Amino acid sequence: xxxxxxxxxxxxxxxxxxxxxxxxxxxxxxxxxxxxxxxxxxxxxxxxxxxxxxxxxxxxxxxxxxxxxxxxxxxxxxxxxxxxxxxxxxxxxxxxxxxxxxxxxxxxxxxxxxxxxxxxxxxxxxxxxxxxxxxxxxxxxxxxxxxxxxxxxxxxxxxxxxxxxxxxxxxxxxxxxxxxxxxxxxxxxxxxxxxxxxxxxxxxxxxxxxxxxxxxxxxxxxxxxxxxxxxxxxxxxxxxxxxxxxxxxxxxxxxxxxxxxxxxxxxxxxxxxxxxxxxxxxxxxxxxxxxxxxxxxxxxxxxxxxxxxxxxxxxxxxxxxxxxxxxxxxxxxxxxxxxxxxxxxxxxxxxxxxxxxxxxxxxxxxxxxxxxxxxxxxxxxxxxxxxxxxxxxxxxxxxxxxxxxxxxxxxxxxxxx
Length: 417
Ligand code: AMP
Ligand code: MG
Hints:
The protein is of the alpha/beta class.
């Protein structure tokens, strides 16, 4: 049994080493086609809704704004009370502040009115206070007042019974504000995914432990836990896994039982200490892909029993970038969210790259003053530059870049929120 697994593994390693490199976009497309979205839903209070994904439509229960109201501090009047030409002086008959429920305006008078206050019946224009002259209880209004000027009409923002968001909408702060404005206090959302996280590697120690010779601190765990939680999902922390086939199988089986998706780091290379591939093959099915991506060439994707697994590379910068490019969109779609495209923009290169590469490169860099500049050292083992960067500079396959060329930049805010 052990021999046949080893043989199978040796053969697949050989195949893998010569298998073609898959472009990033193709790999992502194939991954997303394999998503089977989770369906469990729950009702939550609006205040808990940040980053959650709508599972049913929300319908406005009122018009927003609910009544015509003033967009200015000023005076409300009926155009029919004004002289046809020139100025008009009228008495102030009433004062209306935001929150008041005004009576009909007496013809031939004006209402003192404030921003957000309801327009009284009978009035059809508001004149801003800077344009009038007040003397005692009278106000002199200018000529040329337009019908409905400075009035925000009822329902201008939202209409009663309007569908506010489609199913699959991932809620941002302004979305919660919109729902609140429409009177919604509870929403139906998908239950947060449970994502199992495990770190393979005998060299790993947890921060807080005494540094031992030969060991390094586990950085992927803290980073990925935060990325997952930022998506509104729950981490099932499986912890550290020893570099043996048996320990890897036990950890994966436990992870598959407890979570909707598994993310592991390390152990996906072709070394003898790399057991993820063999373990996943034994418990389910595995696809090992060589991606046209730097950093992050090897990516393992498959299923342990029915639970999808992403085997991310161990090098922290590779783990970060493969998470951002592949695991994150997959997770969002698994959570029921509509596909979200990370926005990129063009900026001028503050660097040159004279040697073309055969993989799409994602350089950790800084955008400032219209220019993007990568850090000098792009080693996939270095995480400090990933943390100092504010985004990734994308260098296409085969591209040569001169100072001032336009290159694409994806800010972190598009990848990690
Ligand atoms: P591997 O893919 O297991 O061969 O690991 C590749 C490199 O990443 C090695 O230098 C590992 O020590 C390092 N590495 C793996 N996992 C982690 C981790 N969780 N935190 C920091 N470095 C790691
Ligand atoms: Mg390892």
